[in-house]
Structures are given as structure tokens and as C-alpha cells.
Design brief:
309 residues, 2 domains, 8-stranded mixed sheet, elongated, Immunoglobulin-like, alpha+beta, 5-stranded mixed sheet
Length: 309
């Protein structure tokens, strides 16, 4: 009898422990220090950025309505969405323009999570952002007043890979301005996962040593590039014929060029000497281009492009 009673008591204690392990103790972050510009934080990992309870955005004559939402974040909310690890309990929220929105963000994981949105007017919200952040099982509350225009805001967790693994949603103000892709349960993924077999057919492989059947044409043999092709610059190599000719021409003409510049620009001011040098280099460049064009036309047999005498 005593043995059965001991087993019963142990079972009750173990069940109570398991229940407490499944339901984490949520700490409420309320004692936040005000750092100005709507930036609140404490030493235990709680932070609010962009807090605004009374400043109206442009176009809002008054607060249209007060709305309070509670957002839960954790691994368990990703189970219904294959390929994700984290998630929110909801991934879409709708409010009216000029709404004063109070968000209570509840983190149910033993890691840091965020509920943040971008694209707000920067004159009212620092960096155009509203941001809730907590570490471990806890909750935190922040308030903002939304702008007057219809717009869709991306909401996500900015911790590395948390958004990519499912922690994202959208806040639609008024009629919104469209939707974002890859919102779990709301919109289709931008790049769908595909784990099926490939449907593409392999390309046929040419067999150069395969026997040729009667009546078949023998495989064409690639010919070596001609001199004309090399000179005309069609070669895929870096040292094409045009480049080699240009380098050779420049190397041979360099001494004469320097001597000509020295003689023609002697006694000139720096500005006049520079203008004289540029004029000589331009003339040399035009001569080189005409020479290469003439040589290419000769080698390729395109004499019809040459000026007639």
C-alpha cells in the first residue's frame, strides 16, 4: 500500500513538473527606462523603439481608434508550416489609418525574438521603425500611431535567419498597398521549395569515335582559326591579333612620338604643351585605327569596304 501511495505521489509531482516545463513562466517587462525618442529598455533584454502615444502623423487630425493586439512568438507556431522553425500565432493584422495601435509581444521561446516594422515616417519615428524585443519567455508592450495613408507594412523578427525561417507577417493599414510574398499561411512563397525528381531530359552526348552508318554525314571537323579571324578580333583569346598589332605599333612608334612631341611643343607653356600633346596623340590614334581597319579588310577579303581610287 505504501509503495502504491509513493508511486501515486511521484506521478503527481512529475506531472506538475512536466506541465510547468511546457508552460514557461512569462515575465512581464514593465519597468523600462526611457532613453528619449521613444526608446525604452531594461537590463533584462526588453526593448521598445519608436514608442509614440500622442504625436499625430501628417494627415491625421485625430486618432481614428485605439486598437490593442497580442502577438505570440515561438517554435510551436511554425509546426503547421513545413520548412519553418519559428513563427507568430498570427501573420496578418488590419487596422484603420491614424489608428493608435498597442502591441503586446509575448515570447514563448528561450531565445531572443522581435516584432518590428519598417517604412514609417522618419520625422516621427527614428529610422522609420517600430521595434519590440525581448529575450526568453517574457512579454513587452509598445504603442505607436499609424500614418494616414493606405499602406502594407512588413512585420518580422530581425534576428539572423528568424525571418527566413518563418517569423514574418504584414500589417495592413486601410486598403493596404499590396502584399508581401512568403508570408506563412497568407501568401505564396517567392521561391517555392521543390524536392521532386528533375523533369529535364539529359542532353545527347556526341561520340566522336562512334561508327558512321552508310548514308550518314561524317562529323564536321573544326578547322583552326584563320589569320583573318585572329586579326579581326574574333578569337576568344586575350592576345588577339588586333591587340598584338596595336602593341607592336605602339612600341615601334614610341621613340618617334616622344621626339616629335619634344620638337613641336618646345618652349610652350604647360597648358599649351598639354594641348599640343593631346592633338598629336589624337592624330596617332586615328592613323592607327585606319591602318588596322585597312589590314583587316585586306586579310578578310572585304575590299569593297575600301575607298575606291
Amino acid at each position: 500500500m505504501k509503495k502504491l501511495l509513493s508511486v501515486f505521489i511521484f506521478s503527481l509531482l512529475f506531472g506538475a513538473y512536466a506541465a510547468s516545463a511546457e508552460e514557461p513562466n512569462i515575465v512581464d517587462h514593465t519597468q523600462l527606462m526611457d532613453h528619449g525618442e521613444g526608446h525604452l529598455m531594461d537590463m533584462d533584454g526588453g526593448m521598445v523603439m519608436g514608442q509614440n502615444k500622442d504625436k499625430l502623423p501628417a494627415g491625421c487630425e485625430k486618432v481614428s481608434e485605439d486598437v490593442k493586439i497580442e502577438v505570440h512568438a515561438g517554435r510551436k507556431y511554425s509546426k503547421q508550416f513545413p520548412g519553418t522553425i519559428f513563427g507568430f500565432d498570427k501573420h496578418e493584422w488590419r487596422v484603420k489609418p491614424c489608428t493608435r495601435l498597442t502591441v503586446t509581444f509575448v515570447n514563448e521561446d528561450n531565445v531572443r525574438h522581435q516584432w518590428m516594422m519598417h517604412g514609417l515616417p522618419k520625422f516621427l519615428y527614428d529610422k522609420g521603425m517600430f521595434h519590440l524585443e525581448i529575450t526568453g519567455p517574457a512579454k513587452i508592450t509598445g504603442t505607436l500611431i499609424l500614418p494616414a495613408e493606405d499602406k502594407t507594412y512588413l512585420v518580422h523578427c530581425d534576428i539572423a535567419q528568424h525571418m527566413e525561417k518563418g517569423m514574418k507577417g504584414e500589417l495592413i493599414v486601410g486598403k493596404g498597398s499590396g502584399t508581401f510574398p512568403s508570408i506563412p499561411g497568407i501568401t505564396d512563397p517567392a521561391i517555392p521549395d521543390n524536392y521532386g525528381p528533375s523533369t529535364s531530359q539529359p542532353k545527347p552526348v556526341n561520340m566522336p569515335n562512334a561508327p558512321v552508318k552508310p548514308g550518314d554525314q561524317p562529323p564536321a571537323v573544326a578547322s583552326a582559326p584563320s589569320i583573318a579571324t585572329t586579326v579581326s578580333g574574333d578569337s576568344s583569346g586575350f592576345f588577339s591579333g588586333t591587340l598584338i598589332i596595336g602593341l607592336l605599333f605602339g612600341f615601334l612608334s614610341a621613340p618617334f612620338l616622344f621626339r616629335e612631341i619634344g620638337e613641336r611643343c618646345k618652349g610652350m607653356t604647360a597648358a599649351d604643351a598639354l594641348q599640343c600633346t593631346l592633338k598629336l596623340l589624337t592624330g596617332l590614334y586615328n592613323t592607327l585605327v585606319r591602318f588596322i581597319l585597312w589590314l583587316v579588310q585586306r586579310l578578310t577579303g572585304k575590299d569593297k569596304l575600301l575607298p575606291k581610287k
